[in-house]
Amino acid sequence: MSTLQDKYSGVVSAAQSAEITNLQVQEQDGILYVSGNASNTAAKDAVWNALGAIDSSYSASDINIDVQVAGLSAGAPLTVATEDSNLNIRQEPSTDAAVVGKASKGSSVTLIEQTSDDWWKVKTDDGQEGYAYSRYLKA
């Protein structure tokens, strides 16, 4: 087992116990890649929460998690699941990008595309389109 697989063994076990299908764990150029399909957002969150337990700022550059939620397609309704604030809707999939809108906690947005594991393109009820951090979206 590699050092990275040791370091992130909690993430890999979480992916296995969340029954992530097509799970692939491989190391390349000093980065551990974990990918697969989740049956629901809770399974995806289990993998991310395991990473959060190791790296609370989610800033590690030696792991790449790409877990897509199967069965979520364009037009799917999502609920904003922030802790207590509004969810920023951004122009580009980055925290550095301009905020083009906000969605309040508990409100609904519509999935346009699962752009990446971190960022999903969504549309708010008032028609604003942009990118939202997927950790705060629930199917």
Outline the fold blueprint:
Layout: H1 3-7, H2 9-17, E1 21-28, E2 31-38, H3 41-54, E3 63-69, E4 77-80, E5 87-90, E6 99-103, E7 108-113, E8 119-124, E9 129-133, E10 137-138
Parallel strand pairs: 2-3
Antiparallel strand pairs: 1-2, 4-7, 4-10, 5-6, 7-8, 8-9
Helix pairs in contact: 2-3
Estimate the mean pLDDT confidence.
91
Number of helices: 3
Largest sheet: 5 strands, antiparallel
Class per helix and strand makeup: alpha+beta
What is the helix fraction of residues, given as a range?
10-25%
pLDDT < 50 stretches? none
Radius of gyration based on Cα positions = 15 Å
Total beta strands: 10
Quaternary organisation = single chain
Instruction: State the strand order across the main sheet.
Output: 9-8-7-4-10
* Binned strand content: 35-45%
How far apart the termini lie comes to 35 Å
N-to-C series of helices and strands: HHEEHEEEEEEEE
Shape: globular
What does this structure look like?
This protein is an alpha+beta fold. Helices cover 20% and strands 40% of the residues. The chain has a five-stranded antiparallel sheet with strand order 9-8-7-4-10, with no helix packed on it. A hairpin with an 8-residue loop joins strand 5 and strand 6. The model has no long low-confidence stretch (mean pLDDT 91).
Please name the defining characteristics of this protein:
alpha+beta, five-stranded antiparallel β-sheet, 10 strands, 40% strand, globular
Question: Nutshell version of this structure?
Answer:
This protein has 139 residues and is α+β, with helices and mostly antiparallel strands. It is built from three helices and ten strands.
